Amino acid sequence: MAGNVGRPRKQSPRRSGATAREEILDASAELFTTNGFGQTSTHQIADAVGIRQASLYYHFPSKAEIFLTLLKSTVEPSLRLAEHLDASAAEPSEKLWALVAAEARLLLSTRWNVGRLYQLPVANSEEFADYHRARRKLEGYFHKLAVEVVGPDDPRTELPFHIALTAVEMRANDGTVPAPIVDDALPSTAVMLADAVLNVLQAPLPKQRTEMMLALVQGTDPSAPVELGA
């Protein structure tokens, strides 16, 4: 009898994820964030998912491609929002607040602290150039908005992006989601960091800023492609 005999599971699924690809990413995120990149093998990833090692390559051609996918997941949603905000009529301080809150919320919404993966030495490899292009482009939006708030010669313009990233230092890496994304609220940490950015820039906080940010996010398409420059 015909069937999917080419890629059988070794056992029942035991990872978080609606698909085998998502399960692989979940297992990889745990192993990379706890053991590092070099100390994690594709055999370990496959075993953690409960699939054969050969089956893993059906979804990802290499361990580096899995790592790149996880890296890009920490910036691309915020980059899509930044591109949307850039075309909006909101005030620069409102856009900046929304962008900081969005990036912090993203970093708090995963089971494993994948936002920290960029700190691993291997992340500087040329293999991950796509991630670095996306990260530079996102950082550029943060800088541009800060310049619009305080002017081009103010050294504080470099702070908003890095303040948003402190969300990775303020969460655990224990397999629980610190703050699942919901449609009607923001994590208190995301609000705090976004407020801190405008306080550092000595800009007034927007009125009803949480509602404003959520409305702006709802206007974006999370599946839209991200155009990256060189």
TrEMBL record:
It comes from Corynebacterium guangdongense. Keywords: DNA-binding, Transcription, Transcription regulation. InterPro entries: Homeodomain-like_sf, HTH-type_TetR-like_transc_reg, HTH_TetR. Residues 18-78 form the HTH tetR-type domain. Residues 1-20 are annotated as: Disordered. Residues 41-60 bind DNA. The keyword DNA-binding applies. This is AcrR family transcriptional regulator.
